[in-house]
UniProtKB/TrEMBL annotation:
Biological process per Gene Ontology, one example term: GPI anchor biosynthetic process
Record's keyword annotation contains Transmembrane helix: yes
PANTHER family: PER1-RELATED, POST-GPI ATTACHMENT TO PROTEINS FACTOR 3
Name of protein: Post-GPI attachment to proteins factor 3
Transmembrane segments: 124-145, 157-181, 193-211, 223-243, 249-271, 278-296, 308-326
Summary of the function given for this chain in its UniProt record: Involved in the lipid remodeling steps of GPI-anchor maturation.
Record-stated family: Belongs to the PGAP3 family.
InterPro entries found in the cross-reference section: Per1-like (IPR007217)
GO MF terms, alphabetically ordered: hydrolase activity, acting on ester bonds
GO cellular component: endoplasmic reticulum membrane; Golgi membrane
Amino acid sequence: MVDRYWIAFFAVFVYLVRVFEASVGDADPLYRACVEQCEKTGCVGERCFPHCKFPSDGAVVDSPWYLQEPLYLRWKQWDCQSDCRYYCMLDREKEREALGNGPVKYHGKWPFKRVYGIQEPASVALSALNLAMQFHGWLSFFILLNYKLPLKPNKKAYYEYTCLWHIYGLLSMNSWFWSAVFHSRDVDLTEKLDYSSAVALLGFSLILAILRSFNVRVEAARVMVSAPLLAFVTTHILYLNFYKFDYGWNMKVCVVMGVAQLLIWAIWAGVTRHPSRWKLWTVVVGGGLAMLLEIYDFPPYEGFVDAHALWHATTIPLSYIWWSFIKDDAEFQTANLLKKVK
């Protein structure tokens, strides 16, 4: 949760930085000449690419089906233009390094080195670890409620936010899954799935923050709070995917939802007597410090680990603490409800 909260604060800043830096590398005349030559000849130096024998749809013009590019290569959409840009970028960066110049961005991205066709291997691996951490947290929460804490006579948990946290866990795992896919290969489809998953998680997290912090237990009241927010988030996701993928508008929406829920949790942590409120503060403050990596945005070390990848690394322990707080909250509320029953 914390990663989606704090990124909302700095998303606009990072976006503007990327806009200003996006054309530094690809505006280089030597890079442009290399790409143009590669697209004509299919080669960069002594490296030649079979992709350049195929158009962007993966099939040779007027060719039989058996000359089509294999599906296992086509799914990543590494076409002639992508390979030309990638290897021209690598060669140009070697030349810049020999001259003592630092890396620059190409088409809005730092010069990463592929590993088995994976575009940003460190971010993919760390997104996968975050996914594993979310699964571990959700599974331990499930085990706690169903096997360690007392249950009602109807075999349901006393904790009144069980279903909501289960949904949150599934949305979190979904978000990190598409984050890993997006960092593996940045194309239009993976970008939309990653952004849509993040917005869905942010929207539901806002609902959850309101319901838990204000201790909304009545089902009708929960529906009244959730319905307009669910409608807005759904409409926003449909707008991004089927009408216009507006980065600026999406950033504003994420900022509002992120700031709102962060303030709710922070204020609740300050006024509540919850025994594990220190964990909530740790997540809030730690997440804020971790986001300094996103502001700094340094180029990838050895072409693999950049500031964004390190930010993904910091969210792993914070996610563990967050799920620990959720489990403590379940134990705390269950104990209070049992006291009232007795």
